[in-house]
Design a protein that fits this description.
The protein is α/β, with parallel strands linked by helices and about 350 residues long. It is about 60% helix and about 10% strand.
């Protein structure tokens, strides 16, 4: 049994932070499911931009859709959903065996909608309906404007992956949006079983402060933020508010670790995976990191639920001049802007490919 399978047995879901047509066509994803206990995956505009730009695997799909009059976002969504439906079908046995707890894939609404609450609500419902797969999450960023869209989408019965969370406070805002959506469904006598995950981004913290803190604090901030958020997650699941919903049949919104690839070349390539081992959570792992962890990773125990040790670490960062609250807001803003940049690059790439393929006929 390799370390990835051991981590799965510990109670943590391992999701691949990647999707390409090649890993579907070549059986790579199926192998990861069988060998490394991978039980889901996530996608984003950057992943699709690289996949479409670096291979010819999508050329025929782009050509045929362009000939049918599709362009821009509509063409991309069809292209992406073709891959995600195939992946969702591979994970469907896990989805069924866990009664919908695991076995999910994710598709993002346009990052251009980050400040458009009504537009995000409409787009989430449209994508989920078009996907035609029960085990597909729609990703909405947990920005201030996104929080209302998350609540309304949950109320509408759309499974949501809340993305771009960077702090305990941002996580709590997303969790409360989920709770409100479920509470409204219960009040109306509707099925409370609408799934959701809340994605906390980890490694970007350490990249942001790498040159601003003493050497002994390098690569410790992201994990500490994770520990603080995990404590809040456990507190929420023990709260009377949640227990009331659980008694009505609701499912927990699971905490998901995102951005878990090591950015510092001098640090261990499995650092975040080892530190974030925790039951009842999800770890989305870049392909390179998954292979590294299966090969030489170590499971050193599970995360503490009380968060005491992490608070001491965070106090050290405060003494070093790091304003954690301000940095969390900045990281979320920067993350939203980065997704917009990737989205625009993706739309340009699709337009260029559509044009080139049309002229090649």
């Amino acid at each position: 049994m390799n370390k990835a399978q051991e981590l799965h047995n510990l109670g943590q879901s391992l999701w691949l932070d990647n999707i390409t047509r090649e890993i579907l066509d070549h059986g790579t994803l199926s192998r990861y499911i069988n060998e490394f206990a991978v039980t889901g995956l996530t996608s984003n505009p950057t992943i699709f931009d690289e996949a479409i730009g670096n291979t010819g695997a999508y050329d025929e799909g782009i050509r045929s859709k362009a000939k049918a009059g599709k362009s821009g976002e509509a063409l991309f969504i069809e292209l992406a959903l073709e891959d995600l439906r195939r992946a969702a079908d591979l994970f469907r046995p896990v989805f069924d065996a866990t009664d919908g707890v695991d076995g999910w894939v994710s598709m993002e609404v346009s990052p251009l909608l980050a400040d458009d609450t009504p537009g995000s609500i409409v787009a989430a419902a449209r994508i989920h309906g078009q996907a035609d797969r029960l085990n597909l999450y729609v990703k909405i960023p947990g920005t201030p404007k996104g929080i209302s869209a998350i609540e309304e989408s949950i109320f509408n019965g759309v499974p949501i992956n809340v993305t771009l969370l960077f702090s305990r406070e941002q996580y709590i805002a997303a969790a409360e949006a989920y709770l409100r959506g479920i509470e409204r469904r219960v009040a109306e006598g509707r099925d409370p079983r609408v799934a959701s995950v809340a994605s906390l981004f980890v490694s970007r913290w350490d990249k942001a402060v790498a040159d601003k803190v003493p050497p002994e604090l390098r690569n410790r901030l992201g994990i500490a933020i994770g520990g603080r958020t995990y404590h809040a997650y456990r507190e929420l699941l023990a709260s009377p508010r949640w227990r009331k919903l659980a008694a009505a049949g609701a499912r927990p919104q699971r905490l998901l670790w995102a951005s878990t690839g090591t950015k510092d070349p001098a640090a261990s390539d499995t650092m975040y995976i080892e530190a974030l081992a925790a039951p009842d959570t999800i770890d989305t792992i870049p392909e390179k990191t998954l292979l590294a962890f299966a090969d030489h990773g170590e499971i050193k125990g599970v995360m503490a639920e009380d968060g005491e040790d992490t608070e001491a670490v965070l106090a050290s960062f405060a003494k070093a001049g790091v304003d954690i609250d301000a940095l969390a807001l900045q990281l979320q803003r920067d993350g939203a802007l980065a997704f917009v940049k990737s989205w625009k690059e993706l739309m340009t790439r699709i337009a260029d490919k559509s044009n080139a393929l049309a002229h090649a006929d």
